[in-house]
Amino acid sequence: MSFTWPIALVALLLIPGLVLAYRWSERRRVRSQAGFGNPDLLPNVVDRAPGRVRALPLVLALLALAAMIVGVARPTATVSVPREEATIVLAMDVSRSMKATDVEPTRLDAARAAAKAFLADVPEKFRVGVVSFATRAAVGVAPTEDRALVEASLDSLATGEGTAIGDAVALSLQIGQPQARTDEPPPPRAILLISDGARDGGRVDPAEAAQTARERGVPVYSVLLGTPDGVVEETLTGGFRRIIRVPPSPETLEEISATSGGELFTASDSTELSRVYEDLGSRLGSRDESREVTDVFAGAAALLLLVAGSISMLLFRRVP
To answer: Do residues 156 and 59 both lie within one domain?
Structure first.
């Protein structure tokens, strides 16, 4: 928390002085009462002394004063507020390794289902696009607010060969650009890269694509799918079967995320993948903003004063 007028906080030093003044006044009151009678006879006259409850209204009043002083200093806090609009491109790996069943039912099917759940969480005004990549990257649907089109694009994904990760990032940057140039800053953009491996083919180097994303202010959030036991079975000519081990390879995704200013998430099963998408949805659906919270402290001060006055009237029939 920061303050627009921090010098006002010096007034908080008055509160300890008021506490000392109150204690001095109480001691003086007790001494003056002793001059008119015997304090030992007081229990015979009064059923019970108010004790520490007597100071409660004053404590609340002092807290209210402290809140008012802090409010005068105009505090500013960083709060999370919903974004009104943004552009997100889902870059989906459809290489052969995405047929592995270590993430049920398959890596691709789990990624598709989680992506649809993600669509339900992001604000309606967000534009979402889909890019698929295997040997080459292709546009499934350009960024749009029409969720039906995005879901249809996800349903049409089919596996192929190769893993052109760099091409996917470059194409996602291209289709995610603002449609029209205005004097206002463009809405925030982000890329969600879902893959299980390193680069295999493609014309664009992933490091270069990540650097371009950083220069354009587009973070790439990567989701690494799969477990070390992942395998793909293929049927060869003659009925023979070939088993190919496809453990996830995080190095390329780590580099892309770190360079672009995003983050790498790992998902070893469908449940964890869903949690990853929920986390990403909350991050992309909100932003941190500095706001003045003077009204919060003013409201707290008013409430404390109201409570202090109520307690004082209830116990002593007077306002502190």
So the answer is: no
